């Protein structure tokens, strides 16, 4: 690799500066990491290059993105973003366009830190940053059949794919994320030497928790005082860290409204109050996009998901797999009243991207037609990424969405709902023509090329998708200099994580919900004795995902560490820990149920009862809801019977029983609430925030913080209100729920038959406790002041 001496005349007004690096015969662009070279414009953007030359006009520097030595509108930063993006599309090869509208799914630096990426000469090794293609390597197992987890430099060098989903979380040095981004950009820039144009590399990421409550906890926190400022502050700080590390696009927030209690993705929502979700997403857009006027240089692109809301799932089955491919609207007006409100709020704030849901509508008697502002809704039974009625007619024309559409992963191979009979090129053609601009998770640009060449996809539709994708790059000022400073990435993370700790902890305190407090059992009386027991479900999802990645899940180790941490917190507060429940002033239960509802391995109806080795009907795994005739064992809470047993022992000896319930779904509480004197809710399970969440629980238990949180989910009163009955619909046997799948729990009662509610304690869908309180979204107690 030859690095040319940059000894050009600094007073040069018009001319050309050769690319700082030039490959010699036999070398490859992924042979070594190239330190980018920068040219500063006094009143314009910095130009960052490795293998591109630099045009000089009137003393100004411009990146020669195709090394043609000629100026073109897309190279001219003095022009508006729209003109530049439109012109760049004209200069791109077809294979580059195909790569632009795809991204890979599982991207992480090879080494976790710069030290680990250095050779003996203290030089960065490219193959320790970005994985090199090894044709003999065994492909990694995938939890999603038909979607590859394999990612390496072949995706960039041969397939021209310009982005991927970052999976490094916070355990990888921020500098390595920045270097990974630079390495991808370095490979893409070399297209300028091969008849193409230089396009920046983009890292997408799912939301990465930085110590704040998980989404349901954010919902609980802001409902307490309806002050959304903590959401903005979280987004503002996170944006700075993401930008510095090259994570320019977030696959989030998830603003689906929780309406079916069995749906496993309820845990990723902000709850079931659409007004709260709308307020939250408004502040997330303001914080992540750095304002309310759309994208700018300091923005992170937000991909608001899953349009138009995936909460009304069919009895909790999830749409990653065919078994959960339908969303149901049995209630007139539910789409507009509940599900679209957060998306409208995001669009009003100029959100930059959306992700459609996988699922499709049902036109049979399970649903009624939906409208928005008097206009008819979708009629075609296809996944939303294939629906022009939803992506163009509804999102753009009616709701005013102005960004780009990024599909979820796998829509051309797995979630092919309604397009099963089309070939893969035809599926790409239909999705892109319907308004999808980026197709997530696939690494097969050759099928897009085929779609154009064989006449399935109009070139104008691909041009539109390319333009929409490029426009976000120009608006965020990432084209002229896409390269990042890894030292700065580390510095920004260190400074902002430290400053965020106090705000994140306060948010965790605000997220604690006091559900029950009979006879003022809380706050705890200091220096008393406490018997502690942790109850947890079997996390089949974690085990399944670990196995898919070739790793082993160690739940026993995790549970022992959790118990030890909780014990340490009580000891810090001066309590005496006892091992015998007969000899304690208090029993404390940390209750963490875990649903069997997994998106990648759906073998039974998602269970929200607290059961240990319960037997349930097995379904045709992932494929359909048809029963196999076999029973499967499901444990959502191990040793659940001991809650009652220990409670009776403690109470007989004059003690009090206190419990914290981890709420990721609206659990049936009949095996917990009657046996405790006080009950709090915890909505956070993310590893990085878990200790914050549990410490915040302790603050409430001892009275150091007066709880303000409100329930983000309505807790289900009984199995009767979510029972299903079989019904023949359109020639098939379907299961129909007695409560509507599309209405949030706090509002379900008017839609449930009175004779069903008459059988239920409290006469409501919402759980009614021993004190007569209903656990509806928005409920929460506090201590007398």
Key words describing this protein structure:
single chain; 785 residues; alpha/beta; TIM Barrel; Rossmann fold; eight-stranded parallel barrel; six-stranded mixed β-sheet; 27 strands
Walk me through the structure.
It is an enzyme of class 3 (hydrolase). Belongs to the glycosyl hydrolase 3 family. Its EC number is 3.2.1.21. This is beta-glucosidase. Keywords: Glycosidase, Hydrolase, Signal. With 785 residues, this protein is an alpha/beta fold. It folds into three domains: 26-35 and 71-199 and 427-487, no CATH class; 206-420, TIM Barrel, CATH 3.20.20; 512-708, Rossmann fold. Helices cover 29% and strands 17% of the residues. The protein is built from 20 helices and 27 strands. The strands form eight sheets. The chain has an eight-stranded parallel β-barrel with strand order 8-9-10-11-12-13-16-17, surrounded by six helices. α12 links the parallel β16 and β17. The radius of gyration is 28 Å and the shape is globular. The N and C termini lie far apart (72 Å). The model has no long low-confidence stretch (mean pLDDT 96).
Q: DSSP strand (E) fraction?
A: 15-25%
**Shape by Cα distribution:** globular
Mean pLDDT: 96
- Highest CATH level, the class of the largest domain: Alpha Beta
Rg for CA atoms: 28 Å
What low-confidence regions span 5 or more consecutive residues with pLDDT below 50?
none
Main sheet makeup: 8 strands, parallel, barrel
State the helix count.
Answer: 20
Strand tally is: 27
Percent range for helical residues? Answer: 25-40%
Q: What is the second-level CATH architecture of the largest domain?
A: Alpha-Beta Barrel
Enzyme class: hydrolase
Pfam families: Glyco_hydro_3
InterPro entries: Cellulose_Degrad_GH3, GH, Glyco_hydro_3_C_sf, Glyco_hydro_3_N, Glyco_hydro_3_N_sf
Family: Belongs to the glycosyl hydrolase 3 family.
